[in-house]
Design goal:
241 residues; alpha/beta; Nucleotidyltransferase, domain 5; 17% strand; elongated; hydrolase; nuclease; REXO1/3/4-like; rRNA processing
Length: 241
């Protein structure tokens, strides 16, 4: 008996069957994790308006106010006389302003001499015509200008006047040896009160400028620009009181 050929139906049926892809299960959103107990406790203590996040940069601070002009402080200061008395008191303060003469103006010559009494009043103030030609007016310090020489007195006249006025009196000033040198005058040491030589005013045994002393002892700024002999004399009188 002949063998029957294999049936082709089964393979055909198998070839017609389609595999359906498996669907991935949908992932459920994770439940929010519980806050750390310490963090939750901290949040409960903070005010409602507090925002916990990135720190904000602080707003830039406004620029500092400009410092006052030192010249304005000087101009606002004025020493007033304690009396209207313009007499020659027992003590007189002397200050001189110099100009430059000689080669390159390196030599100092008298150009103004001022005396102030104990009450702060000017008793003598004259411009002086040097015996030599002026090379450097030193205006930025002395305040002397060519126009001042138009009404200046001869050196010999001013020298004689000063010598007569200070004789027998106490002479007050700062670094008086410079003033007496340009006047070609001397004065008894016992009658000199020099603020540059006063031990109390010295710093580590060294002399100090009148500008420095006025700033420390009187809280006053002076000599920011041109010097004024009348004011400098008053300061010396005040410092020694």
């Amino acid at each position: 008996m002949a063998a029957q050929p294999p049936s082709s139906g089964a393979p055909a049926a198998a070839g017609n069957t389609k595999r359906t892809p498996k669907r991935k299960p949908k992932t459920k959103p994770a439940a929010p994790s519980a806050l750390n107990p310490n963090w939750a406790q901290l949040q409960s203590k903070l005010p409602a308006s507090t925002f916990l996040g990135k720190r904000k940069r602080p707003a830039p601070s406004p620029p500092p106010a400009p410092s006052p002009n030192p010249d304005a402080a000087e101009l606002s200061f004025k020493l007033e006389p304690t009396s209207d008395d313009t007499s020659l008191t027992k003590a007189l303060a002397l200050d001189c302003e110099m100009v430059g003469v000689g080669a390159g103006g390196s030599k100092s010559a008298l150009a103004r001499a001022t005396l102030v009494n104990s009450f702060g009043n000017v008793v003598y103030d004259e411009y002086v015509r040097p015996m030599e030609r002026i090379v450097d007016y030193r205006t930025h310090i002395s305040g002397i200008r060519p126009k001042h020489m138009n009404k200046a007195k001869d050196f010999s006249i001013v020298q004689k006047d000063i010598a007569e006025l200070i004789t027998g009196r106490v002479l007050v000033g700062h670094a008086l040896h410079h003033d007496l040198k340009v006047l070609l005058l001397g004065h008894p040491k016992k009658d000199i009160r020099d603020t540059s030589e006063y031990e109390v005013f010295r710093r580590e045994g060294k002399r100090r400028s009148l500008k420095d002393l006025a700033a420390q002892e009187l809280c006053v700024k002076i000599q920011q620009q041109e010097h004024c002999p009348c004011r400098d004399n008053k300061l010396c009188q005040v410092e020694l009181e």
